[in-house]
Amino acid sequence: MSELLLKDKLRELRTRMHYTQNKVGQYLNMTRQGYAHYEAGLRSPDYQTLLKLSKLYQVDINELINNHTTPIIHDVVHENEIFSSQSNNQKLPPRVIQLNADEKKLFNLYSKLSDLEKQEFLLLLENKVRDSKKTDVKK
Hints:
Layout: H1 6-16, H2 21-27, H3 32-40, H4 47-57, H5 61-65, H6 101-111, H7 115-138
Helix pairs in contact: 2-3
């Protein structure tokens, strides 16, 4: 998908998600025809619309507007870690992480769990990682 024009990317993403132009138009608070103009290349979406589309299609905004895929940023943040670059209540900019299909599926399934189920699932994952590390050390 990385070498496609924006209009083609929008069409491909919409059909991949099994959305109609009408449904996407409603999500964007516009008519079906308004959205269809984006896919036909007759109009270009503004920045806010691109943000909404990237959220809807679960892709990085750069993937929509550029001819390349944004690399994944791997930052490990440990519990209780304090960012020394934060001073005077400055907030760090949010990090954009491109998820693969399995990671998207995991987050989607996780979001459907109750709060108690989420806690149980996280505990299960933590134990699995801990056991995996113990097995790696023994090898």
